[in-house]
Amino acid sequence: MNSENLSLSEKIVSPSYIRQGSQARRSHEQLIRHLLEQGKCPEEGWSESTVELFLNELAVMDSNNFLGNCGVGEREGRVASSLVARRHYRLIHGIGRSGDIAAIQPKAAGSSLLNKLTNSVALDILRLAGVRSVASCFVVPMATGMSLTLCFLTLRHRRPKARYIIWPRIDQKSCFKSMITAGFEPVVVENVLEGDELRTDLEAVERKIEELGAENILCVHSTTSCFAPRVPDRLEELAAVCTKHNIPHIVNNAYGVQSSKCMHLIQQGARVGRIDAFVQSLDKNFMVPVGGAIIAGFDESFVQEISKMYPGRASASPSLDVLITLLTLGANGYKKYLSERKEIYSFLAQELKSLASAHGERLLHTPHNPISLAMSLDGLQAESDKAVTQLGSMLFTRQVSGARVIPLGKEQTINGHTFRGFMSHSESYPCPYLNAASAVGITREDVTLCMKRLDKCLKTLKKEGNAVKNGSPSNQEVTTGE
């Protein structure tokens, strides 16, 4: 209520009560004022009532919610289902305009304000997470792969003769297809094995640049967050190589925001060399539904160029989801999640190492990967050829999600390119293995229950293997739950 309505209310209800209610409302409005003034994630999270008050205030600023609105256009924010309208807080117009996803919509001031504030808060969080010199970012309603494609298409206008993208191998289909979809030819650079880790082959990258010619290369497409035993690319060295040859550098930072190590690599890469843009997923880093990403960079004009490449308006759902989440958590709440994730990574490593030892396996030594871990499955492979893949299906049926079992020798053809040893990031990794990750939001209970079920599966497979060797039929154990 405004001051006039409050004065009128005092004629109906005791003025002291109205003043008390007015003070309570001002406490909500004070938080909103700070957000509008600073454009940063609040230190402490907001209550749901404050968030909903703010969203309702934004919604009434959009023309589809004007009391006297008369719409005669083809896009007037009409929604047939009231359930759908409530799901979106009646913010129906989306974000951007036909020529620019970051543009202001004349008939949707509230949605436009939502878009600008979300981008500003996201930028603040990227700086808080470790990339302190990032200049600009925007939320785009596409997942990581398509967001990378948008970056490559933007670079096409700057480097019209380029045909190739140099890509240190990571076995994740969307990364590869993002380059194909943009119309470029990926040049796959195999990783080198250092101990148990798969690391960037810098000499091979240099050789490819010399062989193809720098002017024919659109960019280097590197990766931070990944499944062990692959580890984040040598970003500082790659950034220096890109500067040396004047080649753009795009970083796939899919779930790297949650890792201070990944964010530090990006910060250092930009300090010593060249990083044009880095892309991160919303769902993996901020615990929101799938469908959004943040595209960020160190040159504001280039980031704006990418946003203008997006054709048409866009859904506001990813922006709305991440803004609600960050306002609810606050900077301190998000930092707490990051701290807990790091602690549970150490706990997961200890538990996986103990379990591996008990079954004659070992935890692979991958100190440069701050999120994912891997346990060898050599003994399981020795039991039978099918035991490794069987372990994966057993874990899935026992409701262990996210664990990846990687057999030896798998081949996969994607858009005409055959990857040998697919899923292992290498043509010939020495052993089969199992992956587990400590990602943001994981709990100690998740780890404990996973280890318990994995232990049971390994014992069952060993028992079946021994039965086959002894020539007796195995009694297959069917277990659900714990």
Automatic annotation (TrEMBL):
Entry's Gene Ontology molecular function annotations: O-phosphoseryl-tRNA(Sec) selenium transferase activity; tRNA binding
Binding site for pyridoxal 5'-phosphate: R75
Pathway membership, UniProt: Aminoacyl-tRNA biosynthesis; selenocysteinyl-tRNA(Sec) biosynthesis; selenocysteinyl-tRNA(Sec) from L-seryl-tRNA(Sec) (archaeal/eukaryal route): step 2/2
Keyword Cytoplasm included in the entry's annotation: yes
Binding residue positions for tRNA: R271, R398, K463
Reaction catalysis annotation: O-phospho-L-seryl-tRNA(Sec) + selenophosphate + H2O = L-selenocysteinyl-tRNA(Sec) + 2 phosphate
Keyword entries, A-Z: Cytoplasm, Protein biosynthesis, Pyridoxal phosphate, RNA-binding, Selenium, Transferase, tRNA-binding
Positions of the record's site feature: May act as a substrate filter by repelling compounds with a negatively charged alpha-carboxylate: E74
Cellular compartments annotated: Cytoplasm
Highest taxon above the source species: Eukaryota
Enzyme Commission (EC) number: 2.9.1.2
PANTHER family on file: O-PHOSPHOSERYL-TRNA(SEC) SELENIUM TRANSFERASE, SOLUBLE LIVER ANTIGEN/LIVER PANCREAS ANTIGEN
Complex and partners: Homotetramer formed by a catalytic dimer and a non-catalytic dimer serving as a binding platform that orients tRNASec for catalysis. Each tetramer binds the CCA ends of two tRNAs which point to the active sites of the catalytic dimer.
Function, as annotated: Converts O-phosphoseryl-tRNA(Sec) to selenocysteinyl-tRNA(Sec) required for selenoprotein biosynthesis.
NCBIfam families for the chain: selenium_SpcS
The name this protein goes by in its record: O-phosphoseryl-tRNA(Sec) selenium transferase
Source organism: Acanthochromis polyacanthus
